[in-house]
Amino acid sequence: MRLDVVSIFPEYLAPLDLSLIGKARTEGLLELAVHDLRSYTQDRHRTVDDTPYGGGAGMVMKPEPWAQALEDIAGASVAAADGAAPGRKPILIVPSPAGEVFTQRLARELAEEDHLVFACGRYEGIDERVLEWAAGQYTVRPLSLGDYVLNGGEVAVLAMVEAIGRLIPGVVGNPESLVEESHSDGLLEYPVYTKPSSWRDREVPEVLLSGNHGKIAKFRREHQLRRTAARRPDLLDKLDVSNFSKTERNVLWDLGYAVVDGRAVRRPGEPSGE
Length: 274
Ligand code: 6GU
Prior knowledge:
The protein has helices at residues 19-26, 63-81, 104-110, 128-134, 154-165, 176-179, 213-231, 233-238, 246-254, and strands at residues 2-7, 31-36, 49-50, 60-61, 91-101, 115-119, 139-144, 198-199, 202-203, 257-260, 263-266.
C-alpha cells in the first residue's frame, strides 16, 4: 500500500517513523511520503490560507496549492500503477469533524486499497471546490474521528494510518490478535489479566486459572456483553443477535435486554449496567 500525507506541519507526522507502522515501512509493506503543502505554493510568502467569502471567523485554505499537490500525487500514482489494475482511483481522505465517522469497518475497507492520500486541513478547512474538483482523479472521503473538534487533520491522520496500517497482512505479527479485539464483532473486548494472580488483595477471576477453555470462553463472552451494555449501549442496539445462543440471550436478559426480531431491545423499566 502507498500512503501520501499533505500537511503544512509535516513534522507532526514524525511518529509514523516509529513502532509498528515504522517497521512496516522498513520492511516494505507500506510506502509512506509526507508532503509540505507550502512547497506547492507559487508566491514569495508561500501563502496557504485566505479570508472566507461570506465573512465569519478564521481562515480558509486556498484551492491552488491543494490542486498542485493533489495533481502531483495522483500523477505519481498513475505512473506507479503503469497499466496494472486500471480504473482504481486513489482514495483522498479529508480529515474533518464534518466528515463521516471513521470506524473499524471503514479501516478494514481502506486496508484493501492500493493508494490512500490524506489532505490535512487547518484553520476552518479547505475551499470546498477542491473536494469537488479532486473527485475527477480521486474517490473523495471526508472522515471524522468522532464528535469533537481538533485544530487540524494531522492527529486524525496518525490515528487513521495506525488503524488501517495494522490491518495490512504482515504488519501485526500475530494476526490472531486482530480477531478477538474490540469492535471486531461489534462488541467491546473482554477484560484481561496477567500475573500475579493475586495483586494488592485483588484476585484474577478464578475461571481464568481453571484451564477449562469452554468455561473461559463463556466467561469472556459474558463480560464482552456486560461491558458493551454498560459503556456502549449504542453498539448493542445495532447488533444482529439472531444467531446468539441460549446462554448469550440469558446474559442479555440479565442486562435488561430481550431479543426481538434478531435485535437486542431494552426491556421497559430495566436499567442496563455492567
Ligand atoms: Cl478528522 N479533523 C478535525 N480537525 N477535527 C476532528 C476530526 C478530524 N475528527 C474529530 N474531530
